[in-house]
Hints:
Blueprint: H1 20-27, E1 33-34, H2 46-55, H3 70-78, E2 85-88, H4 91-102, E3 108-113, H5 117-126, E4 129-134, H6 143-149, E5 154-160, H7 172-181, E6 187-191, E7 216-221, E8 234-237, H8 240-246, H9 257-267, H10 273-293, E9 297-298, E10 305-309, H11 314-323, E11 326-327, E12 329-330, E13 336-339, H12 343-360
Parallel strand pairs: 1-11, 3-4, 3-5, 5-6, 6-7
Antiparallel strand pairs: 2-8, 7-8, 9-10, 10-13, 12-13
Helix pairs in contact: 2-9, 3-9, 4-5, 6-7, 11-12
This protein binds pyridoxal-5'-phosphate.
Amino acid sequence: MPAFRQDLESVAPYVPGRSEAEILAEYGLDHVTKLASNESPVQPFPEVVQAIAAAASNVNRYPDTTYQRLGPMLADHLGVPVDHLWFGGGGANILLCVTLSTTGPGSSVVYAHPSFLVYRLSTAVAGAESVEVPLDGEHRHDIDAMIAAVRDDTRLLYVCNPNNPTGTHVPSSEVLRLLDAVPESVLVVVDEAYHHYVEADDYWSMVSLVDERPNLAVLQTFSKIYGLAGLRIGYLISRPDLLDPLRKTQLPFTATNLAQVAAVAALRHTDRLAERIETNADGRAELVQGLKARGMATADSQTNFVFARLHDDPLAVTEGLLSRGVIIRPTGTAWQRITVGTPSEIAEFFDALDAVVSGVGSP
Ligand SMILES: Cc1ncc(COP(=O)(O)O)c(C=O)c1O
């Protein structure tokens, strides 16, 4: 028997939202509504699909690790110099590399709880210690508690804004307050995977601040609003003097050539994002109103998902929904996360929810 790292024995692997194929097979269904993984319910723009198809024959070549086409386009779109960008095979790949490059045994990482599970997982993989700071009563980051949680051995701090799985945001002035309070030796990564969906007036992206701040990096992704989750491409925005050491733990070629081609094509149509944002906001409002009308508590959402307390027996509800072909995301608490689907998917969710709740009893 080979020997494995003992410190990983207690680490639970990342469990993604259950897949459509898995549920179809398990329950013998012919149709599944997947509201479990915060994906875009609509496909990429048709021009993006065409660009992927046209580039498919080039996959005998390794990807361009200099991002000659994508780099300048994204830099222009974000208003940052091209040397402020670092790409990876999904934002999750970058998060792992950031954690590996900054921490290790004897150091700690501060982040909120519950928040994106990849922070916990990558901290464990790095052999560092997680310092998890509970969200406040409104399911928001508790900025004072996070500042207080920073220790001498802290090297990295994640702010998930808006937060997954709760959908809540912290005002950007609060993020600035945290940046002012935290020592410059601590890298602060603001994870803006869901920034497109935010409507709150007190929220703005931290991208424009990366040059002013010596310890700030911002994570964004093509997985959400652009609908490219299956291709895996995300990016970190920071100063080159931070990106150079951070990149060292990344293996080459994680952002594939098809992912790059798709991202380039998607950036040609950013004028169509407003429509997607509006559709998401409408679906989100419908989901929240429907849940509230059924007496179920919801957290404020600035994202493409809603955190809700559906029932005292969340497992029974999740299972009941699965048996009716609706996949939502359990969070290991009394609350569950439901991704905003299309209007018909939302209707299917409520039909199934009503049937399940009438079977297991009122919340
Ligand atoms: C908060 C947060 N950050 C980062 C990511 C990474 O996304 P990806 O690896 O698909 O780019 C996700 C994906 O769900 C997320 O929820």
